[in-house]
Amino acid sequence: MPRVVAAPDKFRGTASARQVAAAIAAAAAAAGWACDEAPVADGGEGTLDAIGGRVRSSRVRGPLGEAVEAEWRLLSSLPGTVVGSGPMALIEMARATGLDLAGGPEWNDPMRASTEGVGDLILAAVAAKARRVVVAVGGSASTDGGLGCLNALRPRGRLAGVDLVVAYDVTTTFVGAAAEFAPQKGATPAQVALLGRRLERLAQVYLDEYGVDVRSIPGAGAAGGLAGGLAAVGATLLPGFDFVADTIELAERIEGADLVVTGEGFLDEHSFDGKAVGGVVELAEEAGVPVLVVVGEAFDSGPVPAVSLVERFGRTRAFEDTLACVEEAVSAHLWALP
What is the pTM of this model? Predict the structure, then answer.
């Protein structure tokens, strides 16, 4: 029986990666294929769902100071090798200080939005006896350079013996985070300039206080500089997709498959620059396995052709009945194979 590996990212706003993987599996079953469901993420939103683990929840400070209930995960062990072995907590910063929690860019206060809630989550994980804490960054409301998080973690002695890891989804520089992403968080041009200067000053503060120059660390600008702030206090920064792929042993699961299906909501030039879809395509190509990319909408085809649900089924159905569209698109591809 031929085997397909279903390794999609989320279709933001319409379906989770696990839901899309299940739709791919349904198409595979109907066509007489076996399917290995392996949903992925790039270190941003969706990382908890991709990896799993025991569900925990903590009440923390939201991006604008309001209390929110934030889900996180506690894992007893991991099969991958990127962050070593042993008990680990997995935190998705967007669950505590995400832009959606602030009401989107139109309701966010980009100058006040803070990462304090991320610090609250880290402390909750430490209180639960986690000795390794992975923070998946992406989808943030803030551009505070991680200052709110570090303030919440004071005194630093509470982190003694705890390994911090940041799984980042963009390679933006620390200071560049303001110009590149603050406008998406509701910042005006004047506020972008102010946030950029604030990050410049903060980088110097981190250098003076911790002896770490976050301006030179790739990915330090992820989540409005949260990645850099955590790096300043000793966190290791890792590309998010690499962390997820290693943890779920994706390369091993792709080996020997007959097809890999991946996808996401919007395909653009960023999709092949450290993001999940590009990472899956690269692993499939290394293994010599053909790959099918199914996306909600394609703005850049990238190195492999992509099936656009909007183009094939129309915008309304693609957004309102995404999973059925994914199943139909994959089914059509499988039945067309020799």
Answer: 0.89
Domains within the chain, CATH numbers bracketed = 3-40+251-336 (3.40.50.10350), 47-242 (3.90.1510.10)
Asked if 19 and 324 touch (Cβ cutoff 8 Å), the reply is: no
Tell me the one-letter amino acid at 121: L
Strand extents, DSSP E, the chain: 3-6, 34-37, 54-61, 67-75, 88-92, 132-136, 163-168, 236-239, 259-267, 291-298, 306-308
Instruction: Of 248, 324, 282, give the one whose Cα is nearest residue 81.
Output: 248
Percent of the chain surpassing pLDDT 90: 82
Neighbour order of strands in the sheet with 88-92: 54-61, 67-75, 88-92, 132-136, 163-168, 236-239
The per-residue pLDDT for range 73-102, each reduced to its tens digit, is 998 765 554 555 558 899 999 999 999 999
User: Side chain identity at 56, as an amino acid letter?
Assistant: R
Q: Which amino acid is at 188?
A: T
How far is residue 170 CA from its own chain's centroid?
Answer: 9
Q: For residues 119 and 152, is the Cβ–Cβ distance under 8 A?
A: yes
| Residue 38 confidence class, pLDDT cut points 50, 70, 90 | very high
Q: Is the dihedral of CA 233, 224, 139, 67 positive or negative?
A: positive
DSSP per-residue codes, 81-122: STT-SS-EEEEETHHHHBTGGGTSTTT--TTT---HHHHHHH
15 touches 57 (CB < 8 A) = no
* Angle, CA 115 vertex, CA 112 and CA 116 arms, to 5°: 100
Q: Is 9 exposed, middle or buried (0-12, 13-18, 19+ CB in 10 A)?
A: buried
Residues 6 or more apart whose CB falls under 8 angstroms from that of 288 comprise none
Cβ contact 185:113 at 8 Å: yes
- Is residue 269 very low, low, confident or very high in pLDDT (cuts 50, 70, 90)? confident
